[in-house]
Amino acid sequence: MSVDHVSLVDVNNFYVSCERAFDYSLRNRPVVVLSNNDGCVVARSQEAKDLGIATGEPFFKIQRLMDSHNLAVRSSNYELYGDMSARVMELLGRYGTWHEVYSIDESFIGLEGNLEQVRSTAAQIRKAIDKSIGVPVCVGVSSTKTLAKLANHIAKHNPGLGGVCVQQLMDRSVLDNILSRVPVTDVWGVGRKSGAKLTSMGIETIADLRDADPLLIRKKFSVVLQRTVFELNGQRCIGPVEERADRGQVMFTRSFSTPVRTYEAMEEVMSIYAQKAASRLASEGRYATLLTVTAGTSRFAQGEASFPSAQVRLPRPTRDPILLSKLAIAAMRDLMQPGMDYVRGGVILSGLSDSPGEKQLDLFELGDGQEEEQKNVSSVVQDISARFGAKSIGLGPAGMAQSPQWTMKREHISQRYTTEWDELLEVRA
């Protein structure tokens, strides 16, 4: 009988795996990927973990390992990671009866068939992604999403399984032994705070939580954790999941490599970030009704601090890069204090909708000729961005070929192998 199973496909060490897919010199050696401005470690290879490097560790503390332990360091290459993620998700969609993207490197997909057929399909998925995209994945299969996450966890930590774990095919005593040893905080949806409270109640392992009284869990915690108990017992009760990225807003907030002190430099920041946010809105087919601008000095700096922030209600849902750029610049100009060292800034678009809506009171109304001209320019900018990429065109500072001095520091960045023509991988024979 054909049965619908839940599988979780997760790319192993995603950022590092993307780097290794194009640079074989990174294989079998410790590799770390750094956060914005090369501040701290956000991803590690297994070899780097074995050296004791922790997530969040400042780069300057491990820099010495580059010479002593052949540690490879890469700045975050978001263009590469985003494109590789899209390729993985597109391929996964070919295998499942349904497909839910959970994060940049994780997807739930539905698989039909008996248990042996499902195990064969999971192995095919691993092989196809490795061959077509070049990144390793593990696949966990079970009857519920919570158990599929658990099965994926087991696949990752047991190399003998070949990266695939079908929970229903496991020996019951082996599974019970694992569940009685893994901490309850390793269950999907159980955070540190809930874990501490569960531990105080004597619920320390996944097996303990599975065997707990669902009514007591709901009374002490919430219906969400009660569902987790049901799912651990094979009762499917978690519906479609939302992608972890916030779908309610589009953000462009960054730290600067050098402080921004002048009106002119801050105008560059606001103009570029507003146009990037508008470009992303256009790519998603959405419109914003609220614009928020922010900036800030360092919390650790001596002397006076400044954290300007303002919200602007837009006259109607829009993704017009010209209008958003003008409003962002105007809003921040009234708030910032020239001469202070601003180390971060950002533009946030929220109140998103799928249609531009009706025109309402327009406080920024232009003459007929000017409005038509602005529409034409905005349309051209959006069309070119959609066809050739967000960096192909820009208004004012956003159109400069060379990045401003304050932009993010990425001294160890790799090539954007899949999104830039002039950075394609070179192969010599």
SSE blueprint:
Elements: E1 3-11, H1 14-22, E2 31-34, E3 41-44, H2 46-50, H3 59-62, H4 65-68, E4 72-75, H5 78-92, E5 99-103, E6 106-113, H6 115-132, E7 137-142, H7 145-157, E8 164-166, H8 172-179, H9 192-200, H10 206-210, H11 214-220, H12 223-232, E9 249-260, H13 263-284, E10 288-297, E11 309-318, H14 321-333, E12 342-350, H15 368-388
Helix pairs in contact: 11-12, 13-14
Domain UmuC: 6-191
Organism: Glutamicibacter ectropisis
InterPro entries: DNA/RNA_pol_sf (IPR043502), DNA_pol_Y-fam_lit_finger_sf (IPR036775), DNA_pol_Y-fam_little_finger (IPR017961), DNA_polymerase-Y (IPR050116), DUF4113 (IPR025188), PolY_HhH_motif (IPR024728), Rev_trsase/Diguanyl_cyclase (IPR043128), UmuC (IPR001126)
Which key features would you list for this structure?
15 helices, about 20% strand, alpha+beta, 5-stranded mixed β-sheet, about 425 residues
Can you put this structure into words, describing what you see?
This protein has 15 helices and 12 strands. A hairpin with a 6-residue loop joins β2 and β3. By secondary structure, the chain is an alpha+beta fold. The relative contact order is 0.11. The protein is globular. A 5-stranded mixed beta sheet has the order 5-6-1-7-8. It has a 4-stranded antiparallel beta sheet with strand order 9-12-10-11, covered by helices on one side. Helix content is 38%, strand content 20%.
